[in-house]
């Protein structure tokens, strides 16, 4: 079967990565691409690397242009998907890469985002383990509205959810520090980051509790464990185009050894295609996941500190955005979950 596809926000980084992956999808046919300031341009003049799209031209992002497709991917700035999607038919599968429909509690939205809360869509993180031991995948099978997680939120959630659910870590002193690449901020923001500012620099931002992925991670961990957690979350911008490396730590419960930790993570992820649990002593690296839909996870116990350390790596544009969007769409349509999602990265 062939599903007709539109990608809105196709001129951005998220949209570009969606198109790169969708080009290999056996059941999707991209018919329409849209943009905002660059509408009217040839897609290839904006994304010269997308050679397979020939003479496709970016159209304006309107409900009329997007309607009539089976699947609509949105990669727009926050706050731009609400009115647009209200005008689309209820049976169109809409997958929004933005944050507008991720949060379940209005207070979390108003604490961290400007504008009105737009309500909640099904959260597009198939591997998220839930309190009863099921996976979020089951909630994606019959939905037509999907909210793609934030990229940092994915790296941290996947690292912590199994341990929290199993009760092997404490809930009130969880800490995460992330190294992140600038493409996470989008193309518009990235083009204003001069090499002279970015190279040779590591720059923290939103490091003192103000990052908007904080409530999203807490929500995910609540859904995984039934517990409210206290979590500090501090990103650091580093000079790599793509990638997130998150180091999360939490106090470990008395008597838990490394074999027990491995058992917990194997139970959660042992059969997951896109989660790679590292051998003892091996570390995740952004260079090994970039270009792929994989998340690497390693764990160890700092005995002197009494803490579990979980290190996770993913490509913010891959598993962190476009990969999660396509994986969730595949599940919602009842087709092969891994269609067009690479396991291999690109190296160097
Ligand atoms: N980059 C990442 O790693 C991640 C991004 N996301 C989310 O995905 C979404 C897209 O991000 P990203 O691709 O990085 O951003 P970019 O800045 O790279 O792209 C933004 C896109 O939105 C279009 N656009 C800009 N303003 C408007 C407007 N007023 N109305 C309609 N379209 C508009 C732009 O069009 P034009 O170029 O023509 O102006 C462009 O196509 C965001 O919500 C982001 O938070 C989520 C997870 C990770
Ligand atoms: C470098 C950088 O700025 N990264 C972004 C990641 C954004 C993202 O994952 O997604 P949403 O904006 O869709 O939530 C940040 O930390 O805010």
Describe the overall structure:
With 348 residues, this protein is an alpha/beta fold. It has twelve helices and 14 strands. The strands form two sheets. A seven-stranded parallel beta sheet has the order 3-2-1-4-5-7-6, with helices on one face. A hairpin with a 4-residue loop joins β13 and β14 (307-314). α1 (13-22) crosses α12 and α6 (151-165) packs parallel to α9. The chain is globular, with a radius of gyration of 19 Å. 48% of the residues are buried. The model has no long low-confidence stretch (mean pLDDT 96). The structure holds NADPH dihydro-nicotinamide-adenine-dinucleotide phosphate and N-acetyl-L-glutamyl 5-phosphate. The site of N-acetyl-L-glutamyl 5-phosphate (X2W) has 11 residues, from α6 and β10. NADPH dihydro-nicotinamide-adenine-dinucleotide phosphate is lined by residues 9-15, 35-38, 61, 75-78, 80, 97-99, 150-151, 183-184, 186-188, 316-317, 320-321.
Topology overview:
Layout: E1 3-8, H1 13-22, E2 28-35, H2 43-46, E3 58-60, H3 63-66, E4 71-74, H4 82-86, E5 93-96, H5 106-112, E6 122-123, E7 145-147, H6 151-165, E8 174-180, H7 187-190, H8 195-198, E9 203-204, H9 213-225, E10 231-237, E11 244-251, H10 258-269, E12 275-277, H11 286-289, E13 295-302, E14 307-314, H12 318-333
Parallel strand pairs: 1-2, 1-4, 2-3, 4-5, 5-7, 6-7, 8-10, 12-13
Antiparallel strand pairs: 8-11, 9-10, 11-14, 13-14
Helix pairs in contact: 1-12, 6-9
Active site: 151
Enzyme class: oxidoreductase
Catalytic activity: N-acetyl-L-glutamate 5-semialdehyde + phosphate + NADP(+) = N-acetyl-L-glutamyl 5-phosphate + NADPH + H(+)
